[in-house]
Amino acid sequence: MTIEARNQKPEIRRFFGISGLRSPRFAGASARRAVSGLRGFTLVETVVIIAVTSLVFITLGVLLSYFYKTNSYALEQSTAVGQARKGVEDAMLYLREASYGNDGAYPIKNVATSSITFYANTNNDAVIERVTYVLTNKTFYRAIATPTGNPPSYANAVTATSTMASPVTNGASTPVFRYFDKNGAELPEPVDISEISSVRTTVVIDVNVNRTPVAFTLSGGATLRNLKNQP
C-alpha cells in the first residue's frame, strides 16, 4: 500500500499542473534580473534632453512672436493707409465744391503748405460751411464750422473736428497742399489766393519709420469748379 501511494504522487501533481512550480525565492530573483535589465537615462542624457527641448520651445516662441509683430504692424499700416485714403478723397470732394460763403466771403479763406480753409456745402443743405484741413503733430484734421445767426455769421460758428489721417510723416520737401493757377503752373509762396484754380494734396503714411513696409504716399487733385478764374 505504501508503494502505491508513492507512485500516485507524481500523477496527482501532473493532474493539478503543479509539477513545474518554482520556489518564491527563485521567482523574486528572476524579477530583479528583469528589472535591472531596463537601464534608465543617465544624468547627462537627461540634461541634454531638457536643453534640446527648451531650445526648441524658445525658438518656436521667438518665431511666433516675430510673425505676430510683423502681421500686427502690417495690419496697423494697412488701417492707417485706408483711413488716409478716405481723408484725401474727402478733402478733394469738398474742394471741388468750394463756393462763396453764406456771408459772401471768397471761396478760399487762407492757404499754407500744411493747411487750407475754404467754404463748401458739406451736407447738401442751404448752409455753406467753413472747412479747414490742417496737419498738426502728424495728424491730419478736418474742422467743419457751421455759421449761426441771421444773417449767417462764422464768428461764433459751431465747429466739429475729425481725424482724417494719422500718423502723417510728410517731410519738408513734401508739402501737404500745393496750389496751381488756371494754366497748371504751381503758385510760389506767398500764394495769391485769387490765382488758385486747383489744389493738390499729398499725405505720407508710415506707422513706424524704422520698419518695413516703407511709407505709403497718397495724392489727389481737385479743380475748384465755382471760382471765377477757371479757364
Number of helices: 3
- The arrangement of helices and strands along the chain is HHHEEEEEEEE
- Please give the number of β-strands: 8
Spans of at least 5 consecutive residues with low confidence: 1-8, 15-21, 34-38
Shape: elongated
N→C terminal distance: 146 Å
Radius of gyration: 43 Å
Give a quick account of the main beta sheet: strands, pairing sense, barrel closure: 5 strands, antiparallel
The proportion of strand residues reads 25-35%
As a percent range, the share of helical residues equals: 25-40%
Give the rounded overall mean pLDDT: 82
Strand adjacency order, main sheet:
1-2-3-4-5
What structural class results from the helix and strand content? alpha+beta
Model description:
The chain is an alpha+beta fold and 231 residues long. The protein has a domain at 63-223. The chain has helices at residues 2-16, 24-36, 43-96, and strands at residues 108-111, 115-120, 129-136, 139-148, 153-165, 177-180, 198-205, 216-223. The strands form two sheets. It has a five-stranded antiparallel sheet with strand order 1-2-3-4-5. Strands 6-7-8 form a three-stranded antiparallel sheet, with helices on one face. The protein starts with a helix and ends in an 8-residue tail after the last strand. Mean pLDDT is 82; it is low at 1-8, 15-21 and 34-38.
Describe, in short, the structure shown.
With 231 residues, the chain is of the alpha+beta class. It is 35% helix and 26% strand.
Key traits:
231 residues; three-stranded antiparallel beta sheet; 3 helices; elongated; disordered N terminus
